[in-house]
Amino acid sequence: MSRASDVEALQNGFKSEFFADLYEVEAANFWFRARNRLIVWVLQKYFRQCKTFLEVGCGTGFVLTEVRERCQYLQVSGSELAAEGLTYARKRLPDVPLLQLDARDLPFREEYDLIGAFDVLEHIEEDEQVLTELWKATRHGLVLTVPQHRFLWSAIDELGGHKRRYSAHELRSKLEKAGFKVLRITSFVSLLLPLLALSRYKKRESKELDKSEFEIPRTVNRLLEMVLDFERLFIQAGVNFPAGGSLLAIAVKQKQS
Hints:
Blueprint: H1 3-12, H2 17-25, H3 30-46, E1 52-56, H4 62-70, E2 75-80, H5 83-92, E3 98-100, E4 112-118, H6 127-137, E5 138-147, H7 155-159, H8 168-178, E6 180-188, H9 193-202, H10 218-236, E7 246-253
Helix pairs in contact: 3-4, 3-10, 6-8
């Protein structure tokens, strides 16, 4: 396969039309909003000393917008493989450096103090190669989120272009193999796991793009967001949840001997 066709195949793992949907729903949806607050807390708690931040796979720029606003000590940049995603990201972040890059082949060597990749690895077959590239590109640390638990696999994962859902053990092993020291791994979306499992079970056989997880009544959406905010208080207090819809990993770079 040529390099051009290889990149095209990777882009097809996340349909271009999904970016328009994401751009419309992210700012109001409980999951995206709660995840943003969790990410910002991690950056402020664990990486306050960092000055430069790159989000790999920044999509429409929703996370990066909040990081720039809430972590003003960071000089932020973003990268995304899909041109469609960058189009939306530039609407949100017209004055932020945004690059079209393949996470499997980053042109950086210790360029950024801190790198984030939020629900990106699961879209890429060569996830270990990506982690190696992230190790090369960062000077200090890495923050990741990925979907968790194989038993939650459904048509939503397939339609979203996912290659896998992770276990905590698998994610830790791959991070350590790439050269990172894992400071912390915890599940999140843990208190809502029974509801999530029921929802995914019902959609296991669906072959159509189902937007019902985004189209939630306002009152229900707010209630779910409050549950995840309450869950975050436990994470901030040092609780590592053993199960949940997603995983959060916080790691620092180890120099290779």
